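Notebook B, p. 112. Complex prediction, attempt 2.
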Amino acid sequence: MTTQQLIDQIKIKKSFLTIGLDVDLEKIPHHLLTLEDPIFEFNKAIIDATHDLAVSYKPNTAFYEAYGIKGWMSLQKTIQYINLNYPEIFTIADAKRGDIGNTSSMYAKAFFEDLNFDSLTVAPYMGKDSVEPFLRFNNKHTIMLALTSNEGAFDFQTLNVSSASGSKELYKQVVETSQTWENSENLMYVVGATKAEYFAEIRKIIPDSFLLVPGVGTQGGSLSEVCKQGMNANVGLLINSSRAIIYASNGTDFAQKARIEALKMQQEMEEIMNLRFNV
Amino acid sequence: MTTQQLIDQIKIKKSFLTIGLDVDLEKIPHHLLTLEDPIFEFNKAIIDATHDLAVSYKPNTAFYEAYGIKGWMSLQKTIQYINLNYPEIFTIADAKRGDIGNTSSMYAKAFFEDLNFDSLTVAPYMGKDSVEPFLRFNNKHTIMLALTSNEGAFDFQTLNVSSASGSKELYKQVVETSQTWENSENLMYVVGATKAEYFAEIRKIIPDSFLLVPGVGTQGGSLSEVCKQGMNANVGLLINSSRAIIYASNGTDFAQKARIEALKMQQEMEEIMNLRFNV
């Protein structure tokens, strides 16, 4: 999917919602557990109930790998289901991969070719040659960790580093350096919502890039604050919500309840977009 | 496996060799491709031919994920084969995972419980709460990236960072900080062999920890240099070799040729151990 197609979808749906499919067998409704593939059935129901309100789904690979081959099959069925039925959806494999060049090429093959995701999250610690193999794919997007939403973000990401271009926090250095890499136009960034004050800083470095924003809702971030600081002329944000939507109920009405939560977020987003773009 | 059991194996085998199972269908002998599971058959032959010379095998998960469910099955069969036939072997899932706490817990479940690896490589960028879930497992080992062997290591890992404890290179800060985390005795570290001069520095911070060392051979690192700077009283090193051993031949003699290469490395290691420990 091209970036322009993603922007078009955001404008059509008046939504920049990503729904995180972090599916834990211990949290999904009990009545699904007797089915052959409970995780896929759960995802299918959530997707069918919310696809007009979200522009993107983001399965977190850990939750699938934890169930071994069965989990990997559920992941494959989920991405195939989305690609077949809702090709306008932007798909994100939240995998946080990254390794030396020939290994990253294998991960790129796994997620961009074999599973046919539109995008993949990657970790920056190993630098340029661990990320560039992902950037080579046309119309595929590499979403690099910049500033994450967890407490551990303060361990290293916000430390001051010195480089030829002066002293700045590591996450800014990561973003700045990555902009010099080949095909950097295929980069997006993870920026946690729990630190809305950082968005203005990041926008100085990458005014145009898309930011994937976890941490709204369960982790305490404010949607309006994030939008105020982080939105650009193309919206430029994908706001992720996982647990607050997919686990809104664990009864037989789970998909309807998920829709209600997704609708709340979409309406809040529509309001923000209307105000911002004077529609 | 306990650290002491690993040390015992190193002393018995006079080897601290890890063989990296980075298995690419395009590089393995053609005659295997007609078999039902060529990757597993390749691994089985390599393992059977080298298990007395190596203390550890390290499948890189990217190479399995690239083949989807079939690849995941090959990985599962490989780890089961090792655990069943060679329980004295220390197994490493080279996966470079790391995510927010509840997600890292799922990865830990996937690799430590479902697949039953002894250890897993993780990336440090997301800090304490992304790594501690792995450290909670008794007799399982978390091998954190410190200084990697690729060119991109110089992008961020060697930048100077400022913290309460003074100014130092990021990789040192990462190692130092991680030593304060709960159950840090379950940590090992990845330190690339291409930078032998850094080993002395790292040993000042973590004299006793095991270091997993990629980059000897194909990537140009010198075994004797690494040992001189990085070896401790328990050896404390796991030297990885992947391509130089497993792709020593792509004919029907591939396993025998792999053994010859592994034997060369083991003999070099034995010589170094004899000199060092005056055996």
